[in-house]
Amino acid sequence: MEETDREAVATAVQRVAGMLQRPDQLDKVEQYRRREARKKASVEARLKAAIQSQLDGVRTGLSQLHNALNDVKDIQRSLIDVNKDWRQSINTIENLKDVKDAVVQHSQLAAAVENLKNIFSVPEIVRETQDLTEQGELLQAHRKLMDLECSRDDLMYEQYRMDSKNTHDMNLIHVYFGDMQKLSEELAKQLWMVVQRSLVTVRRDPTLLVSVVRIIEREEKIDRRMLDRKKQTGFIPPGRPKKWKEKMFNILDRTVTTRIEGTQADTRESDKMWLVRHLEIIRKYVLDDLLVAKNLMVQCFPPHYDIFKKLLSMYHQALSTRMQDLASEDLEANEIVSLLTWVLNTYKSTEMMGNSELAPEVDVNSLNPLISQNVIDQLLSKYMSTLTSNIIGWLRKALETDKKDWIKETEPEADQDGYYQTTLAAIVFQMFEQNLQVAAQISEDLKTKVLLLCLQQMNSFLTRYKEEAQLYKEEHLKNRQHPQCYVQYMIAVINNCQTFKESIISLKRKYLKNEMEEGMSSSHANMDVILDTIAKEGCSSLLDEVFMDLEPHLNELMTKKWLTGSNAVDTICVTVEDYFNDFAKIKKPYKKKMTVEAHRRVVVEYIKAIMLKRISFKNGEERKEGAERMIKEADQFRFLFKKLAAGSGEHTEGLCDIIVAIAEVIKLTDPSLLYLEVSTLVSKYPDIRDDHITALLTVRGDASRDMKQTIIETLDQGSSQPNPNYVPIFKEITVPTLSVPKLLK
């Protein structure tokens, strides 16, 4: 208390100090005193009121506690009295058991009396219910069936309450109402027939479907009520729960499955397009059914049935099962493509599940795959394996067909530019194109794999093509009269090589991504090499054909007959020109090379004729005449090949210059200058050998053995500076040596 007083005094001092801070405030001391007195009186009044209120509450509480104590004592005395009375009445309760049984029996009899009318009218109600069911009045029939079931269930429940172990009476009731179970089954059959045809019924008679749904809903409510009573009493009527809602969805599920499976109208034996037709019918049926379900069926079912989503799930599952079954069959390559295209593309496209009329209820992104990735991989693997075998077979067949064309007696067809060709390239690349277009429908990855496969098989095919072209040439050489159009078809083979090149480039540009091309450059280069080899060998075989015809005329060169006025070179030029009229049907890249090669071979054969030493000029007059003839014939060759090479940009006049240079050596009249002329020849054509010089001097006819030896030895000591643009030609020319019999002769 002392401490409290000290705190109060300190607070008061502080408060007074706050009031009396200026001298003028001293005049207001009395005013401050009165104000503080009023505040003190007010606080004291509030304290007194609060204390008084608390005292009143304590007084009231004590009074109530006293009353409660008295009440507890009274209750205790009453409980003692009740306990005494209960102990005295135990025997009396046991004596009332008969009364209890009588009450139960009365209750059962009351129920029997209440249902007596229904019990006696059961046969009549059964007949009426059966008639209504047959007439299609399903709601009314179900109402009467419910009344019968209610009467039976009440009787059985009362019997169960009275004596649950009395199976005899239970069976008696069950047998009496036995026809009712048949009615229930008959009505259920009618309901399931409507459910099976619900997609048709909802368009023709939606009220019938609504009636069926109402009946099922009634049965669901009764099932729930009976299950609740079973929890309380342990009794449930026979046949409950019926679970008609669950059965309805099971029947819808089976109906959907049957509808999907039943769309296959054909087999592979009856129709090669059976799978395409089957998948198209499925697509149409599923889309139509889902549109009907969304627009009409949802109006006939309660919202909590969620009928559209359940049907969507059923169709998806049925389709998945069907696709799995189809995938497990021994499908051909085109059938695998049809199946995968449908599963991966068509199913989620706007033609089916992605249809705008099904949105937003159907979200294609949330649909699970119809078949697993593992199955897809297996199908793709099988497809690639089958396709590989097919492509090999197709290429073999195409080549065999092309080979048959090679022996025809009619010329091959020409393209729009007039170049000979066969249908081989078109057939091969049309086949590749078709397979790539099909693969592109499935996936980009498969398209790339198919392209790689096509190019790989193309590589092997070109090797066989090369071998067959070689065999074609060899067979022709056995009998040059057969086949009649050998030249024309060999030209077509050469042109096919260019067509193959262009088609390969076009195929890669169209179906191959840029980043993939680098990895295939080596394969492409290899095919180009094979095609160039085929074309080169084809051109060579055609030139062989030309020179076989020229052989008799080439043999006349540099002979006595030639010197006295043979027209061998004229015939050679005419023959070459005639052949090249046919060779005009060769495409430019190869025709250009062929013209150059023909020019080179003519010059080589001419020089070979010189080196064969068929003639040795006797005097200067013959040498002059022979040399001038050689120069004239070189000009004829130059003119001919300039004409044949017109527009090609090739300049090969230098080849004929070799003949002119040799003619100048032969034409020389002063033997003392022979070394100088020969050395000039060697400097221009450094690949010329000693035996060539010896043969050339032998043809001149005026060089002694010592002169030949001196010229050769002198030339061997010198060095020549070859022209960097010069293409060696003498290395192909061999000089025959005299055999032993000739030497003896």
UniProtKB/TrEMBL annotation:
Organism name: Chrysemys picta bellii (Western painted turtle)
Keyword Cell membrane: no
Secretion signal, residue range per the UniProt entry: none
A matching Pfam family: Sec6
Name the UniProt record assigns to this protein: Exocyst complex component 3
Gene3D superfamilies with a match to the protein in the record: 1.10.357.50, Exocyst complex component Sec6, C-terminal domain
Family from the record: Belongs to the SEC6 family.
Keyword Nucleotide-binding: no
A biological process term (GO) from this entry: protein transport
UniProt GO MF annotations: SNARE binding
The encoding gene: EXOC3
Primary residence: other
Quaternary structure (record): The exocyst complex is composed of EXOC1, EXOC2, EXOC3, EXOC4, EXOC5, EXOC6, EXOC7 and EXOC8. Interacts with EXOC3L1. Interacts with BIRC6/bruce. Interacts with MYRIP. Interacts with SLC6A9.
Function field: Component of the exocyst complex involved in the docking of exocytic vesicles with fusion sites on the plasma membrane.
Cell compartments where the protein resides: Cell projection, Growth cone; Cytoplasm, Perinuclear region; Golgi apparatus; Midbody
InterPro entries: EXOC3/Sec6, EXOC3/Sec6_C
Keyword terms of this UniProt record: Acetylation, Cell projection, Cytoplasm, Exocytosis, Golgi apparatus, Protein transport, Transport
A single cellular component GO annotation: exocyst
